Amino acid sequence: MKFVDEYRDPATITALARRICAEASRRWTLMEVCGGQTHAILASGLDAMIESAVELLHGPGCPVCVTPIETLDRALALATLPDVTLCSFGDMLRVPGSRGDLFGARARGADVRVVYSPLDAVRFAAAHPERRVVFLAVGFETTVPPVAAAARFARMRELENFFLLTSHVRVPPALEAILSAPGMRIDAFLAAGHVCTIMGTAEYEPIVARHRVPIVATGFEPLDILEGVLLAIRQLERGAARVEIQYRRAVRPEGNPAARALVDEVFEIADRPWRGIGVVPGGGLALRESWRAVDAERAFAELASVSAQEPPECRAGDVLRGVLRPPQCPVFGSRCTPESPLGAPMVSSEGACAAYYRYRPVEALEALT
After folding, report:
1. 220-240 pLDDT, tens per residue?
2. Which CATH number does 1-311 carry?
3. I need a labelling partner for 319 at 20 to 30 A (CA). Which of 265, 271, 337, 357 fits?
4. Whole-angstrom Cα distance, residue 214 to residue 235?
5. How far apart are CA 242 and CA 204, in angstroms?
6. What stretches of 246-351 show up as alpha helix (H) in DSSP?
């Protein structure tokens, strides 16, 4: 396919991998912060091609995976209410809460619907004024603009039965938390290109200045990722540390001004819990006071008492922080599989555990022995 195949050309990939290995004077540790990048790395075998020069760690790059289990339990609590229709993207329906998942709730009669856009939920609310419609909104900065647009659209239509259950998170504060953790050794980051497409790269500048760690905004195809690695390696070899853009066909330093303005209109920066990391200062976005009418956590008294804890046998937190590789988890491939997941990284389409289970079946089998 034009504009895709050229980023997957085997000869060019091999040549770039060899260049990385030739230019690295030592083995550097890099962390990619995008689940799409993680799957591309494992599907294409990029980590094996450059393993002599680079150790690739998989960070908290899956927005579904870092959504707190408490948010899932709140969604489940809402879905059980007789007059509520809960809408979300399909990748949230199989993510386990402490009391099951949304697919199970739907099987038991709850009105849980998969939508392709938050605006679909707004339209459903307009067509069904007798229902209270809640959109479960999770994700990095990439997914926030359409959620903000949905809130604005609902206000324009004067809908009183549309609500948002939000768990949006911001990437830069999570990188700060990872770098500040005791014993964490990361030489450079590959930042998620789609997040930078919206937000730009300015928020990474203070992190680079404080920790002297290069950050390269990187795309998602094999050649994108290898070029991002090469740019990071070249900085490290020179002793440099700066923000650099590999994904130049989509990312500008200023991001998307219109999208950022829309987000700022509806949301404000707030502390937010990340699964596996804990509460990250400034690590999320919350609805502004002027938009409290659509805030499900304020509108539904039933959510006040909802709390949950992660299952103790699941090591998803260590996987998301790059401390543990999925096959090193004691329950990987045995008690935790895509068909019966204990944690979100095994069931999400961008989860690191799901990537290893799918693309590294030998490692999955070895984990059982």
Report:
1. 999 999 999 999 999 999 999
2. 3.40.50.11740
3. 271
4. 7
5. 9
6. 257-266, 296-299, 316-320, 344-347
